[in-house]
């Protein structure tokens, strides 16, 4: 299918290499008041080639919160949905149910800015990224995960029995979900087993935080964050979590290793999660990672230049891939 030369490269990637959209397929663009310019850009181009519908909803309070019932129903009757929202719908039960039903290909376009369609991670060769991911995924499993970082992280947890979760940054098969230009392999720590110190010195993709200026120190005991230390940004994080009044938001639920080398830390979720050499812990909901903790929140916190060791096999050392 010949596409306009005026189409931004990132939009073209979403409609081609990311989704492999075919003539006759239905497209749903979901947006909200906070990211309407992103939704309208994707809609403007998608409607020229595919049967496309755009729906607008109020922004949700947090990543993983549920969309409106109308949107949940619409997800069940479309081939490809682009979630052009302020907060991620990836971990929502509506998205999970729609993909499990077997038709939907989900693409998270949350927390985007217009310039992300012109340069950065969306310009990557996703076929080459997939080769790296597949190579790492073969080794990314075991019993004991030991995580350290240049900033001072030293965390140990069990990942025994937990399957590797892969985000290629593409949604080509029915039932798949991705978050381009994120590209990662992830494991869910077994509940109650994570202990040690996590130092967040990269980013926390949240409207009140983004790129981290002063490291945030998280004391982890028996799977939960029990203390948050640092400066002003630590205070902000402490308040965000406390306002939920729900202990599940402190659960250490994900260890996600970024593998798209075109991404750079910028304070936005997709490129930050998938930034090469870095790792994010996801806190709160862990249902996507073989876990059993439901929570009103799934928040990712990125640390730089990590070393990841699984049962003595060093996967990455000081931000450099060894497998």
TrEMBL record:
<keyword id="KW-0645">Protease</keyword>
<dbReference type="Pfam" id="PF26233">
    <property type="entry name" value="NicX"/>
</dbReference>
<keyword id="KW-0479">Metal-binding</keyword>
<keyword id="KW-0378">Hydrolase</keyword>
<dbReference type="GO" id="GO:0004177">
    <property type="term" value="F:aminopeptidase activity"/>
</dbReference>
<dbReference type="InterPro" id="IPR058739">
    <property type="entry name" value="NicX"/>
</dbReference>
<keyword id="KW-0031">Aminopeptidase</keyword>
<protein>
    <submittedName>
        <fullName>Aminopeptidase</fullName>
        <ecNumber>3.4.11.-</ecNumber>
    </submittedName>
</protein>
<dbReference type="InterPro" id="IPR052170">
    <property type="entry name" value="M29_Exopeptidase"/>
</dbReference>
């Amino acid at each position: 299918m010949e596409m306009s030369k005026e189409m931004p490269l990132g939009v073209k990637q979403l409609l081609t290499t990311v989704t492999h959209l075919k003539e006759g397929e239905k497209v749903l663009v979901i947006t909200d008041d906070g990211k309407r310019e992103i939704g309208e850009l994707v809609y403007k181009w998608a409607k020229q080639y595919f049967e496309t519908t755009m729906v607008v909803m109020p922004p949700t309070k947090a990543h993983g919160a549920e969309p409106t019932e109308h949107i949940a129903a619409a997800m069940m009757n479309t081939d490809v949905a682009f979630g052009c929202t302020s907060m991620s719908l990836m971990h929502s039960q509506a998205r999970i149910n729609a993909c499990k039903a077997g038709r939907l290909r989900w693409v998270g376009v949350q927390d985007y800015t217009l310039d992300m369609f012109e340069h950065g991670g969306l310009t990557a060769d996703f076929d080459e990224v997939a080769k790296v991911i597949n190579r790492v995924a073969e080794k990314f499993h075991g019993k004991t995960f030991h995580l350290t970082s240049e900033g001072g992280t030293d965390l140990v947890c069990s990942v025994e029995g937990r399957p590797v979760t892969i985000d290629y940054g593409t949604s080509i098969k029915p039932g798949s979900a991705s978050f381009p230009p994120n590209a990662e392999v992830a494991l869910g720590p077994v509940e109650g087993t994570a202990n040690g110190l996590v130092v967040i010195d990269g980013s926390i993709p949240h409207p009140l935080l983004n790129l981290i200026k002063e490291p945030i120190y998280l004391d982890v005991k028996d799977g939960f964050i029990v203390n948050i230390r640092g400066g002003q940004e630590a205070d902000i994080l402490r308040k965000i979590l406390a306002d939920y009044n729900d202990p599940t938001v402190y659960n250490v639920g994900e260890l996600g290793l970024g593998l798209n080398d075109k991404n750079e830390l910028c304070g936005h979720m997709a490129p930050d999660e998938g930034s090469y050499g870095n790792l994010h812990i996801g806190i709160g909901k862990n249902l996507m990672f073989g876990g059993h903790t439901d929570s009103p929140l799934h928040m990712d916190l990125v640390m730089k230049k990590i070393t990841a060791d699984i049962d003595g096999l060093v996967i990455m050392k000081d931000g450099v891939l060894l497998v």
